[in-house]
Amino acid sequence: MGILPSFRTIPANPPGPVAIRPRRVEFDWRGAPLIWIPSEPVASYFLNSLNLVIPEGERMIIQAFDEALADVRDDKLREDMLGFMGQEQQHAQAHDAVMRQVFTAHGIDPAPFMQSIEYLFRRILGARDSDGPRLRRQRLIERLGIAASSEHMFAFMGDWALNADLERFGADPQMLDLYRWHGAEEVEHRSVAHDVARYFGVGYLRRGASMIITWPFFLALLARGAMYLSRNDPSTPNIGYPRLMLGLLSAMNRGLLPGVAAWTWSGLSTFVPGFDPQSVGSTAQALAYIAQSPAAKRVQS
User: Is the Cβ–Cβ distance between 269 and 194 less than 8 Å?
Assistant: First the structure.
């Protein structure tokens, strides 16, 4: 709770150009709680479901960027893409560790759920060697559009994580650090996927179509992940879908999750002509948190 006020105060002067680069972090998940917001299983399951969905989603985006790099002639954009890919790889590894160490320690086997997630991101949304050059190019552009829509949502969630007062609910500090460190880097690199999509010709209509598909589908995946955790958590009874949905609405109303209005407005904002991802969050605030992140400091000490 001690680090909260300093990074919440957004510096009046924004930083200049920032070189996006991966940062090493270190978490110790021994003894970490599964219900990491005490007496709030629904909110804990929903946020924990990010650990089930994010790693494969991040790797799909990395794969698309890696494929796209060969056609990028803009040196600054290439540099940003490489830094972005390094950060996303670190994110995937950090959330993988939660699955391997926290979920399994509490009697939950993530493998059955991950099989469907891997099929989605690797087979349905991944590159296909059987595609001809033209179809492969079109699929790449579609994936870059999906990446841009997804990254806008991650930046929105990252900004929320930096500013949500989850300490007042007794949230576990290390889990909070995981989401805030990840969220801060999402805010930091929030423009990269958008810039890449535009570079490859993803215009207003295609961007809108990607957003309409991506956001509801991603939220549905998170709800499904939360349901999976509830059903397989031996320490609590199965919540069931009706109670889960009511619990999610209650958590949103109490500030444990982003509210419906905030989700909706953030998604709709991308349909405003001339939308700029820089309008989401504050780079200065993101960098202020990263400088204080316990997981980042642990590596430096």
Answer: no
Residues 6 or more apart in contact with residue 79 via CB below 8 angstroms: 19, 20
Sign for the pseudo-dihedral over CA of 56, 22, 202, 273: positive
Give yes or no for a contact between 287 and 13, defined as CB atoms under 8 angstroms apart: no
User: CA–CA separation, 170 vs 39, rounded Å?
Assistant: 9
Structure tokens at 53: 């969905």
Number of Cβ within 10 Å of residue 134's Cβ equals 8
Each residue of 66-113: pLDDT tens digit? 999 999 999 999 999 999 999 999 999 999 999 999 999 999 999 999
Q: What is the pLDDT of residue 11?
A: 59
Query: 3-state secondary structure string, the chain?
Result: CCCHHHHHCCCCCCCCCCCCCCCCCCCCCCCCCCCCCCCCHHHHHHHHHHHHHHHHHHHHHHHHHHHHHHHCCCHHHHHHHHHHHHHHHHHHHHHHHHHHHHHHHCCCCCHHHHHHHHHHHHHHCCCCCCCCHHHHHHHHHHHHHHHHHHHHHHHHHHHHHHHCCHHHHCCCHHHHHHHHHHHHHHHHCCCHHHHHHHHCCCCHHHHHHHHHHHHHHHHHHHHHHHHHHHHHCCCCCCCCHHHHHHHHHHHHHCCCCCCHHHHHHHHHHCCCCCCCHHHCCCHHHHHHHHHHCHHHHHHHC
At 271-294, the pLDDT tens digits run 998 899 999 999 999 999 999 999
Question: Whole-prediction pTM value?
Answer: 0.93
What was the pLDDT predicted at 92?
Answer: 97
CA–CA gap between residue 54 and residue 38 (Å, rounded): 23
What are the distances in angstroms from CA 260 to CA 104, 179, 217? Answer: 32, 20, 15
Amino acid identity, position 205: L
